[in-house]
Design brief:
This protein has about 375 residues and is an alpha/beta fold. Helix content is about 30%, strand content about 10%. The protein has a 15-stranded parallel β-sheet with strand order 1-2-3-4-5-6-7-8-9-10-11-12-13-14-15, with no helix packed on it. β9 (about 220-225), α11 and β10 (about 245-250) form a beta-alpha-beta unit. The longest helix has 10 residues, at about 50-60.
């Protein structure tokens, strides 16, 4: 039978290949996975029938998965509860696990992860279990775990206090944790190995606390404080002096002005690779011009910086390392855009949505002048 199926098409030939190491099935049939003895990555985020019973069968029917599977994605599998996660806890070789939006998983399910001693990345997303219950799961983890609690509604200062004992955490995402205050931030300050930190949307954090606590995380290189509405120039200036950031997101930090750009230009000219200041309407042409000294800058977003005009955009021509540029909702003209982008030979991605002063002629000329293909997002307002 296998021989006849292999002759149907290349897709069937691939599906019957026992050497397959990665699968993303639309329907989970545990018995069929017996064929794939070398399976290492299983993405069930598109599977329509993932349930507790199917996960139990997956582990029972395929015991080899306990030693071969290193990555499992259960994102959006809403029928899975703590019972199903307990079966996942038998997959001892797992290094990466994602289960965003599994709202039926409670404390017992989290505790079942304690046996996954090889786990280095755990993405939980929006879920019901308080952060304090994660201590039992994370205590035995390896040297460099990553914890994604983005949009978790129940992350509080108390939960972060319990996480502070897990000093092995290096990547922590708390985006949207609007219950976290300065007291919770003090607990984050104890995670001295953290190099990537997401605090976007944590609106209760003060600029003084951010400057004092984050300034002590000497390994921090990637920081997201977008929508932290209390961030001021003084906070950014203090962080610029204490840290050497490679990536910084400050979108909608509306109290921030050109002074922050000046501070980054003077201290981060040789290390900053990604900068996002979307919606910071106090940034002007002077701030953009100051950033031209950042020789390693590859990704820049000025979206919604309403005071930036052609003058500021033209100065971007000096940022020769740029590969991605977001100028959406700026009042840039054809001349300003062409003058800015003509020298940027490395640019591959450009966002011009909402730039209503541009015409199709400018974009056509831009594409003709370039040697490399350019992915442009733009909607013609005249159409």
């Amino acid at each position: 039978a296998d021989g006849r199926l292999r002759r149907v098409c290349h897709r069937w030939r691939w599906a019957l290949d026992a050497r397959v190491v990665q699968l993303r099935p639309k329907v989970l049939v545990p018995e069929l996975l017996l064929r794939f003895r070398a399976l290492r990555v299983l993405d069930l985020s598109r599977s329509s029938n993932v349930s507790d019973s199917n996960l139990r069968a997956l582990v029972s029917v395929n015991p080899t998965l306990c030693t071969t599977l290193v990555e499992l994605n259960l994102e959006g599998c809403k029928e899975v509860s703590s019972v199903g996660v307990e079966h996942v806890g038998r997959l001892r070789a797992l290094e990466q696990l994602a289960w965003q939006a599994l709202r039926r998983v409670k404390t017992s399910g989290v505790a079942a992860l304690a046996g996954l001693t090889n786990l280095v990345r755990l993405s939980l997303g929006a879920r019901a279990c308080p952060a304090s219950t994660l201590v039992a799961a994370f205590a035995p983890l390896g040297a460099s775990p990553s914890l994604d609690l983005g949009m978790c509604p129940h992350v509080t200062d108390r939960g972060l206090a319990s996480l502070a004992s897990i000093t092995s955490i290096q990547i922590l995402d708390l985006s949207g944790a609007d219950h976290v205050s300065d007291a919770g931030l003090l607990s984050i300050g104890k995670l001295t190995r953290v190099h990537t930190l997401g605090l976007g949307g944590c609106k209760r954090l003060s600029d003084v606390a951010l400057a004092n606590v984050l300034g002590g995380l000497s390994r921090l290189t990637d920081l997201d404080i977008s929508e932290c509405s209390q961030v001021t120039d003084l906070c950014v200036m203090a962080l610029a002096e204490k840290l050497r950031l490679e990536s910084l997101s400050m979108g909608l930090c509306c109290c921030m002005s050109d002074e922050s750009a000046f501070a980054l230009a003077s201290t981060h000219s040789s290390c900053l690779a990604r900068l996002d200041v979307w919606g910071c309407d106090k940034i002007t042409n002077r701030g953009v011009e100051a950033l031209t000294v950042c020789s390693r800058l590859q990704r820049l977003s000025l979206a919604g910086c309403s005071k930036v005009t052609d003058t500021g955009v033209k100065s971007i021509a000096l940022m020769e390392s740029l590969t991605s540029l977001n100028l959406s909702d700026l009042n840039v003209t054809d001349t300003g855009l062409i003058d800015a982008l003509r020298p940027l030979s490395n640019l591959v991605q450009l966002n011009l949505l909402g730039c209503h002063l541009l015409t199709q002629a400018a974009l056509t000329q831009l594409e003709q002048d370039r040697k490399l293909p350019l992915d442009i997002a733009w909607s013609n307002p005249t159409v």
